[in-house]
Structures are given as structure tokens and as C-alpha cells.
Amino acid sequence: MEDRLMTARQLASYLNVSERTVLNLVQEGALPGVKVGNQWRFRKAMIDTWLDDQMLGLTPRVVEPTPHPAPRKMLALRSCFEPSHVLADLVATTKTGVISELAAFAAGLGLVRDDTWFVGALIKRENVMPSAIGQGLAFPHTLRRHPEQITRPFMVVGRSRAGVDFDALDGQPTHLFFVLGLRYEELHLPWLARQVQMLANAELVDTLLHAPDAPTIYQALLSAEAPIAGL
Question: Of the candidates 165, 164, 155, which has an alpha carbon nearest to the alpha carbon of residue 199?
Fold first, then answer.
């Protein structure tokens, strides 16, 4: 059932929206679907991942699956991100290599209990839908929340100066990787959406790409967060 196909009507019921809304979204390219003959079909696993990305702020939110979302717990970036969480010069040159290198890095920091599990969980998510949103940015994360494996919510950042083919939407190499360790199913982590908002700034991305070292990358991200968060 996790990977079953749904019709537009079934998906509308699942999202609690009208069938017309579903058809408009898929025709605009905002919703992942495939046309079989003259009928649209939707993979449930991809829809769940798409919703997940909307909640995380990785894609624009166009559907509110619940009419009265619970209040979000506000977290500052520094509560999930530390100077030691930056790997300024990735060695890996492939997608799997980058994931493995950053998973081992997170495990070495004590943020995940099993780096082998983390690699598998990150790759499983990538197989459903790539986390590279284009413009040199990717936000790898797991499909489900795993409090037994994630010691605390975190973000680790990796940088590849040369760039890596990460199946980005724009077809360009990915240079900056923001690996998210998500502990709570409710996704009450608005700082994730805040990162996407911050990184829409091309000047910040350029600063991160050309920063001389990890402390400079860390400080640039914290400084960029301050005006957005009202700090």
C-alpha cells in the first residue's frame, strides 16, 4: 500500500482537497504525477515525500493537508547546528559517496547511532525523490522520523567545491549539502523552512561556496538567519 498508484479522485480524498485542485496542481507541474493515456496516476510514496518537502519548506507549500495545523515549536538554528557540524571540503565525487561521507561525519559527531542505517535511510529517500532542489543546493533527509536512531535534531553541512551530480532539478552540479536529522514526526522544526528561505539569497550561497573554512561557513549561516528570525 505504501507505493500504490492513486487516481486523481483518490488523491483528492487523501489530501482533503477537490479533484479540480489536484488536476490543476499536476498540470502546473507542482504535483508529481504521470499521465497514462488520458488519466493521471500518482504514486503514494512520491506524494508523501512531496508533502514532507512542503512541510520542511523545501518546496512551496500549495496544499494544507490539515485545516488546523498544530502550533509549531520555534527553534533557533544554533540549537541544531554547531561549528563542528560543517565539513568544508568533501572528498566524495558521487551521490552515494557524498551521502556515505556525511552520514559517517554525523555518526562521528554522535548525532546518529548507526551510520550504516543512516546511509540506507537517506538513499531510500533519494530513490523516491531527489533532495537536490537546484541552484547547487541539496537537503538530504530520511522519509520517516527515527527517534531511536537520531540522538537529537540536527543539521550538518557539507561542501563540494567541484560539485557532484546529485540528480538536481536543474541538472546542474550540487555544491552544498544540508543533511537533516529529523527526530519528530510532527515536523515542528520551522528552522528547516527558514534555511530554504535564507538560501534563496544568491549572495549567501556565493559566500558559502567561497568561504575559506568551516567556521566561516557556520558564521555566515547564523548571520543570515538573524534578520529572518528577528534575532
Answer: 155
Task: Compute the Cα dihedral for 54, 58, 62, 67 and give only its sign.
Answer: positive
What's this model's pTM, rounded to 2 decimal places?
A: 0.73
Asked if residue 80 lies in contact with residue 225, where contact means CB atoms within 8 angstroms, the answer is: no
> What does the pLDDT look like over 88-118, one tens digit per residue?
999 999 999 999 999 999 999 999 999 999 9
Q: Does residue 113 or residue 192 have the better pLDDT? A: 113
